[in-house]
């Protein structure tokens, strides 16, 4: 199809009290479901997923992710898409900040990275620690709960071996839309809002996180912190993002802005659950419709953004007509490579990510359904198909799911694995 749609959320901020009898945001979420059912489906076609730009939790704790998972399952059900069709990146509130606070070595590593003054130095230190098998897991320890209790089952985990994630969708006859997730929380800790820091402490992005150019590929990136919150000397990374990425989604600042340049569209989302009583308590979320179109022989990406905001009475979600200039959406056109462009090669479509072990099985769906089973059931399936190894001892299934799937692929039993999972759900 030539069009693809998404629901876009950010800064949901589930707390340990979310979902209890006194949760004021329960009604807010109910209105979001109603808005999707009554309005989104009428305006969107070929809905593929829910995009979440971080801060799913408030303190990066397991109970927060349990409620978040239930909420997003309901959102997917409202849209009529599989529950695994969630794509997420971590935010600073998904960092368990007690971990670097209690661990001198983790704090020391983060401080060393934060002290870098140039992008060359930032990349050198980041890659040094990320490649060091004695230390790299410590660097990602503050988002371990985020990975294991939430993002892992959506195949969106961030680890030293997998610092970014990507998923592909066909759009139009010759283009591939690639969702690409970045991690801006490597150095996030209690110093983020230290009293001696003016504003937020700048976060760090490694150059290795910026995707490479591809022919007939359209990029849509997710990152929690926007570029103005990065430690980016000379705007080096921002320039690379702007010149390579057609659509950039960010969260964090709780203020909705949309900026269009010649090459890219930057959407900084407002918060779905901002802090009540705060300066920017203005709950909002977005719908995004992408369509490949042609005019005068040139291809372009037509992007419709539908900003949804809680009305001034706090009663229901409506179109943000102020941002949309008295319409229900704003529309932008982004040029795409044409066949006359030397860089355009019709035959060189983006390939599926190399880490995916099978083209015949929906690995994202398989991962989600497997990790949704009770632990005992999962263990029995692993034993029945002889997929376990001694080196798995001490790891959670979510941490070794890619390894398990690759073993199943090698043994030629991945279809049997799917059948075992489906039978266990009955």
Structure in words:
This protein is of the alpha/beta class. It contains twelve helices and 13 strands. It has helices at 25-43, 62-79, 98-102, 104-114, 119-131, 136-139, 144-149, 236-244, 363-372, 375-384, 397-411, 414-425; strands at residues 3-9, 47-52, 86-88, 165-171, 175-181, 217-222, 247-250, 257-260, 265-268, 284-295, 298-310, 317-319, 330-335. Strands 1, 2, 3, 10, 11, 12 and 13 form a seven-stranded mixed sheet that branches. α8 (236-244) links the parallel β6 and β7. α4 (104-114) runs antiparallel to α5 (119-131). The longest helix has 19 residues, at 25-43. Mean pLDDT is 89; it is low at 340-349 and 351-360.
């Amino acid at each position: 199809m030539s069009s693809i749609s998404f629901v876009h959320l950010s800064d949901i901020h589930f707390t340990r009290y979310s979902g209890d009898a006194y949760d004021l945001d329960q009604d807010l979420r109910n209105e979001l479901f109603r808005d999707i059912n009554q309005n989104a489906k009428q305006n969107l076609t070929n809905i593929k997923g829910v995009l979440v730009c971080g801060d799913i939790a408030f303190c990066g704790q397991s109970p927060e992710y349990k409620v978040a998972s239930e909420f997003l399952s309901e959102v997917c059900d409202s849209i009529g898409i599989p529950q695994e069709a969630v794509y997420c990146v971590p935010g600073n509130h998904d960092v368990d900040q007690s971990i670097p606070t209690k661990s001198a070595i983790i704090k020391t590593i983060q401080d060393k990275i934060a002290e870098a003054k140039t992008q060359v130095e930032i990349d050198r230190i980041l890659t040094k620690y990320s490649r060091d098998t004695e230390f790299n897991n410590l660097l990602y320890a503050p988002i371990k709960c985020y990975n294991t209790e939430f993002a892992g089952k959506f195949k969106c985990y961030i680890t030293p071996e997998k610092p970014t994630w990507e998923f592909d969708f066909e759009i139009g006859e010759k283009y591939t839309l690639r969702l690409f997730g970045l991690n801006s929380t490597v150095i996030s800790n209690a110093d983020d809002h230290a009293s001696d820091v003016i504003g937020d402490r700048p976060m760090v992005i490694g150059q290795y996180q910026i995707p490479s150019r591809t022919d007939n590929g359209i990029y849509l990136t997710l990152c929690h912190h926007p570029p103005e919150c990065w430690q980016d000397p000379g705007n080096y990374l921002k320039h690379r993002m702007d010149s390579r990425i057609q659509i950039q989604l960010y969260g964090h600042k709780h203020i909705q802005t949309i900026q269009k340049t010649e090459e890219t569209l930057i959407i900084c989302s407002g918060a779905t659950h901002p802090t009540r009583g705060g300066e920017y308590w203005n709950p909002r979320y977005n719908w995004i419709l992408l369509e490949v179109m042609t005019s005068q022989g040139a291809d372009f990406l037509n992007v419709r953004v539908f900003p949804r905001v809680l009305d001034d009475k706090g009663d229901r979600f409506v179109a943000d007509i102020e941002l949309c200039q008295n319409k229900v959406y704003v529309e932008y056109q982004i040029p795409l490579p044409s066949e006359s462009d030397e860089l355009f090669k019709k035959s060189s479509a983006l390939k599926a990510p190399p880490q995916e072990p099978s083209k015949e099985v929906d690995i994202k769906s398989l991962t989600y359904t497997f990790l949704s089973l009770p632990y005992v059931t999962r263990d029995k399936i692993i034993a029945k198909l002889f997929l376990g190894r001694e080196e798995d001892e001490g790891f959670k299934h979510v941490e070794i799911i890619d390894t398990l799937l690759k073993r199943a692929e090698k043994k030629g039993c991945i279809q049997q694995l799917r059948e075992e999972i489906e039978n266990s759900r009955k």
